[in-house]
Amino acid sequence: MKRYELMKRFAPKGSVQRLCGLLGVARSGYYLWCRAEPSQRQREDRRLKQRILSIHGASRGCYGTPRVHLSLLAEGEHTSRKRVARLRRELALKVRTAKSFRVTTRSSKGPAVAPNRLERRFTAEAPNQAWVGDITYLWTPEGWLYLAILLDLFSRKVVGWAVSERIDSDLAETALERALEARRPPPGLLHHTDQGSTYTSRSYREQLATAGLEMSLSRRGNCWDNAVAESFFRTLKTEIGERFDDRRQAQSELFAYLEGFYNTHRIHTSIGGRSPAACERQYHQRKYQEAGSEPLRGSLPGPKPPEERTESLPGGS
């Protein structure tokens, strides 16, 4: 079978008779194989390949075999991971690889204004128990575009984000304001970041205190204390890319990725092969069931639907 497949692949470049001689097969057997109808297994492989190609495109080429397999299972396609791996090899699909991470945040001088209360406990039992935040950068021909985010450790959802051409306390405060408006967390939520000056500024600490959030800071120079945020940026730059025509395009790509894919569709192995939105939706459904009632469609508690966010960037209105 594999010899016939090789012949069919290279037949346009060489005579059938010569290929039969090289591969040690009969020409009549090759022609009989060409006329034969594909088997049920082959038809199923073709159908699965179309689904795999669709998932590959929807994931921006970032899903490897494990996540493609999980996506197929979620669609009701009960197949093995080994079969998915084989079909991906036959399709010659490649996964985007991550680049090494560079630290951009400058630590404030002097003693830490808050201890490390998170202590690398990167899970939570419910939404709005613990958030982690950080800042990264994206290069454009117009200059740097800085991105500040806040992630919920329960669902890995980006609950607040902001962009700016400057890295300052206003950038971090805008991301926090949006997270507070969207989530309305209860007092006592643990808010963890590194010791960057944007997070240790007086205005940012006052904003946390007003909202009743408890501040936690990584140890100086220890990126592992904020590993979830660091890992998120590594994922983002791998999947969204790092080449943009200008800041406006970068901002548009960020919105499409964060609100249109990452929060709503991207599979996370750390939360059971679900998307952040599905993780929180199932949590609230479980809570309603435990309370003995069924929620109405669209009545689940949680953040408001995201609105398109704009920043004052050069050339904007």
Walkthrough of the structure:
By secondary structure, this protein is α/β, with parallel strands linked by helices. Helices cover 44% and strands 11% of the residues. The protein contains 12 helices and 5 strands. A 5-stranded mixed β-sheet has the order 3-2-1-4-5, sandwiched between helices. Strand 1 and strand 2 form a beta hairpin. The C terminus is likely disordered.
Shape: elongated
Kindly report the spatial arrangement of strands forming the biggest sheet: 3-2-1-4-5
Low-confidence stretches: 296-317
Quaternary: single chain
Structural class: alpha/beta
The end-to-end span amounts to: 63 Å
Continuous helix count: 12
Helix content: 40-55%
What is the makeup of the main sheet? 5 strands, mixed
Proportion of residues in β-strands: 5-15%
Helices and strands, in N-to-C order? HHHHHHEEEHEHHEHHH
Q: Tally of extended strands?
A: 5
Q: How large, in whole angstroms, is the Cα Rg?
A: 25 Å
Mean pLDDT: 83
Question: How is the secondary structure organized here?
Answer:
Layout: H1 2-10, H2 16-23, H3 27-35, H4 40-58, H5 65-74, H6 81-91, E1 130-140, E2 143-152, E3 158-164, H7 169-183, E4 190-193, H8 197-200, H9 202-211, E5 214-217, H10 227-240, H11 247-262, H12 276-290
Parallel strand pairs: 1-4, 4-5
Antiparallel strand pairs: 1-2, 2-3
Question: How would you summarize what this structure contains?
Answer:
The chain has helices spanning 2-10, 16-23, 27-35, 40-58, 65-74, 81-91, 169-183, 197-200, 202-211, 227-240, 247-262, 276-290; strands spanning 130-140, 143-152, 158-164, 190-193, 214-217.
